[in-house]
Hints:
about 325 residues; mainly alpha; 15 helices
Amino acid sequence: HDYLRAVLKADERSERAFALTTICLKFNPANYTCWHFRRRCLVALCTPKDSDARATINVERIDTDLEFADKLGGTNPKNYQLWYHRRALLEIRFKGDERIQVAQKELGYVDKILGDDNKNYHAWSHRQWIIRTINQPQLWSAEIEYSHSKILLDPRNNSAWNQRWFATHEGEIAVNSGMKLGKLSFEKAEEEANYAVCGAQVDPFNESPWRYLIGVLMEQCRWVQREEGADDKDKVNGLLRDCVAKIKDMNDSPTEDYPAGPCVSLMSALVDLLETVGDKTSLEEAKNMMGELVVEDPVRRKYWHKRQSTVLVLLGKVSE
């Protein structure tokens, strides 16, 4: 490291300085100063001037350095510096004609990392950056299928559910550039709501599909309130009531895989949706169910008492 400090001071971006960073990083892969200097050396060494005096990129050298980062990352899958280094190199590679092929190869690398730890935040973030940067319909649709495969492997993997939200929302924005930012079409929202209900039927005690369902439906409700379109409002209310009916059926008909009795995750989601429906009957049901949750969910007992008081105020307004 004394040698490294010397070349840093001299700002020597040479082959021997580059080789020195390799040695130092093997000792300490988290040395961000060393990674930064390595990139400076790499840029200096792989962008020579050709006969036309235009800068050219040594693609093979960049790919070799990605492989080097891969080897170091095997024992450091949550190393910030490694992931940032990969991103910096890929920003160069994505400027070429083979950007989609390069992206698909990198997505394969990320999949390998997620195979060892399917909740690695760095890997999921890197994956989102790749897809958002390339921004091609084929990658967006493939990512929806990829997140589905990860949910099938582990339905409780909240990172996979989050990735599906990312792919459906930002993907639809990318494919349909005229759509309003952050809003799914009603048809897509209906599809995603049904997907979440199916996920909840697999394991009603799993919080992930319930939160996904609430997110999709609440988003639609907020937008129809802003736009005040009668047709859209009727469709969203119909979807909302349909989901409420399906959840009630699940609550009344427990499966053989899970014991009969209260399911806090299901009840919590049902309460949220009943309160959103907002008519007198639904609010009464929500209030009564909150009373049950006070007992069944003692950790959030005060929270449910507070929610009950809010519903009582809404009931007073509806009755007026």
